[in-house]
Structures are given as C-alpha cells and as structure tokens.
Amino acid sequence: MNCPYCRNPDSRVVDSRVADDGVSIRRRRQCTACSRRFTTLETTSLNVIKQSGAAEPFSRTKVINGVRKACQGRPVTDHDLAVLAQEVEETVRMSGAAEIPAHQIGLAILEPLQRLDEVAYLRFASVYQDFTSLSDFESAIAKLREERSDLPRGNQRPLTAE
Ligand SMILES: [Zn+2]
C-alpha cells in the first residue's frame, strides 16, 4: 500500500491490532520515506464456492438479501439483518479457511435466524434444506418446540404470531 502522503510504496508496521469487528486487522504504518504515519485495515480474503464451482468474494449484502425474503412481513429490522450477517461472517471466518462452500454459509445463517425469528427461520430452512412435504415442516417445528422447552420461561415467544 502506497503512503497516502508521498505515494512511496514502502512502509513499516508500527502497531497492529484486531479491529472492533473482530475480523479485520488494523495496522499502524510508518512511511519509510516521509516518516508520516497512517492506518490500514486489512481483511483476509474469503471466497464462497458456489455449486457451479465458481468462486466469489463473501458478501454480507448477499447474506442479507438471501435472508430478507424469508423475513417478509416479520418484525425483523435492517439492523437485525446487519447483525445477523456480521454473525454469519464471523462464524465462517472462524473456520480459518479462505474458501467456504456456499452450503456452509446457509448452515451459518440457520442458527442466528432461528434466534431472530422462528417463522423466518422456517421459511428459510424450507427453501435451503429443500423441504418437500408437510412432514418436513412438522419435524422442523417439533425440533423448534423441543429446543424452546429448554429455554427458561419468559424467553418464549409464540411460534406463529402472524
Ligand atoms: Zn510517505
């Protein structure tokens, strides 16, 4: 990265720390020519391998767009979706791999979406996990109910609050 002041391509790192988002590294650099300091934000590349085999850079926006459809008419805000997408990114980055199969992104979406809204979760899961019959829904709902009975009382919301 060129020095933003004098365009010199050489700099040395004087400090680095993990940024607030937990997935990038903030480096304090000093230009070897003019000695001025500047900050860079580095994020390791993360590619999603689609079913076709094509790779594309991971995008939170794509995660949000994928989930937004399932959230139509549900009390889910843009902020909720942004937080979910960040959580998904952190989960997939945690694996440390530079390439992630698209399938794994879907898996990483299911858990936070279930916490966010159970109806949206069911919609998303029905598409993503290819539900083909009512009994697929029934078993998914039974599983939700089961998991919910583990929750302390007061944390329970009605499953179908349309
Ligand atoms: Zn410089």
From TrEMBL:
Cofactor binding annotation: Binds 1 zinc ion.
Domain ATP-cone: 46-136
Matches recorded under PROSITE patterns: ATP_CONE
InterPro entries from the UniProt entry: ATP-cone_dom (IPR005144), NrdR-like_N (IPR055173), RNR_NrdR-like (IPR003796)
Residue ranges covered by zinc fingers (unnamed): 3-34
Alphabetized UniProt keyword annotations: ATP-binding, DNA-binding, Metal-binding, Nucleotide-binding, Repressor, Transcription, Transcription regulation, Zinc, Zinc-finger
GO molecular function: ATP binding; DNA binding; zinc ion binding
One GO BP: negative regulation of DNA-templated transcription
Cofactor: Zn(2+)
Family: Belongs to the NrdR family.
Role according to the record: Negatively regulates transcription of bacterial ribonucleotide reductase nrd genes and operons by binding to NrdR-boxes.
NCBIfam families, per database record: transcriptional regulator NrdR
Name of protein: Transcriptional repressor NrdR
Annotated organism of origin: Glutamicibacter creatinolyticus
Native organism taxonomy: Bacteria, Bacillati, Actinomycetota, Actinomycetes, Micrococcales
